[in-house]
Protein: 2-methylcitrate dehydratase 2
Organism: Mycolicibacterium smegmatis
Amino acid sequence: MTTTSDRGVHARTGADMTELDLGWKIAEVAADPVAVPAETHAMVINRLIDNAAVSAASVSRRLVAVARAQARAHRNTPGAAIFGIDGTFSPEWAALANGAAVDDLEFHDGYLAGYHAHPGATIPALVAVAQHTGLRGTDLVRGIATAYEVQISLARGMSAHHSTFHHNAHLGVSVAAGLGTLLRLPVPTIHAAIGHAAHLTALPCRSPGKPHAGWNLHTPAHTGKLAIEAVDRAMRGDSATLAADGAQDGYDAAFWQADHVRLPGMGEPKRAIVDSYPRQHSASHLGQAAIDLALRMRERISHVRDIERVVLHTSHHAHLVIGTGSGDARKFAPDASRNVLSHSVMYLFAVALQDGLWHHERSYAPERAHRPDTIELWQKISTAAVPSIDSAETPFGVRAEVTLGSGEVIVDELAVADAHPAGARPFERKDYVAKFAELADGVIDRREQQRFLDVVTCLRDLKRGSLGMLNPLVDSRILDAAPTTYGIFR
């Protein structure tokens, strides 16, 4: 494992602008032809199944339908597949459509350290390019392994939160690196692509109190599209570097100041993907443990109506983003958007405690959010930041103190969600398959579901030109009923 160090935004010239900068180190990792460990290969398959599951669940949602309609206007041969439909399309547009489907419900994987990451968002761009260029299953596995390694390494060592930039800046770099591995590009070309991607995808963090616009919700999908274009530019000889003489608060400067990013050494296997975790519930990754804790505590509370107040002790980050520390009144508003409710741990805890389950649609339905007893309980819940929960080992942790009208206080806590690798019930292959079967039910024919599972579990054996088989087809009636309107692209 190598660590970047002694790097500042000033006094770096010559060789330091290349061989010593973080972008170059990442490019070297991407170009390393090291073998993929068995556990990494197995987790890549799990992630492909998971992405297909959440894509099936989101296929009829408006913004997903919009992205799909845009992409369908860009037919291309050989091209890449758009989730659920037949035909081939320009890979960057297929990546946009498929990325939107993966990201929309906040149901794909995550990782949290110095800052959060959703590395599963790298996969659509890698699959699209692999399909378009006729690569093999083993090539795709290697590319995904690199993208995860870079994304998680950056989350661990370089806080996008502290540098005021959205985590998608890390995502763009990760996709570029993964594509470099996928296409077996030389280090200088990958380095140039990383530079292009970083410039194109570095967005300021959104204020917690600002609404989530459609473009913001699908920034990861757009990031994948831009990263593909960045790699294409680099392959054509357009060079770019992360300049050390940029602004102190720019993403370039943040890259140069990333003294603690630990990357694999040459010949060291890429295993970071096994540290990522799935989301069992369609909600903010910071709220997964809170939902599981509410489901567990429900057994100890005879009558939810007897609750006087609830205090959820969380990390400082969770308190500010999904808790009362945000100061966002919409987190208590029954008319708030689904995306706001999914980032209100008070709402997540209240509904899970009352219902004893969490559903990606029913738990957010307007009639569910407007239930008088839910609103009453919801208003009784607050969060408090606890420094001990901010440790690297338990950044997702939550402790609940439930005070009843009788004065009795019921206390319970979870360090991580049940599905987390260190949780009570870590996801295994059978759990990913079950999630896919549940979310694809009524959307993808059962025979087509099984065909997809048979193909993806044999990923290593897929020959050149056969990666299009990774696309499960959706009932055309469902696609035709999805809401969308005409735009520029036809």
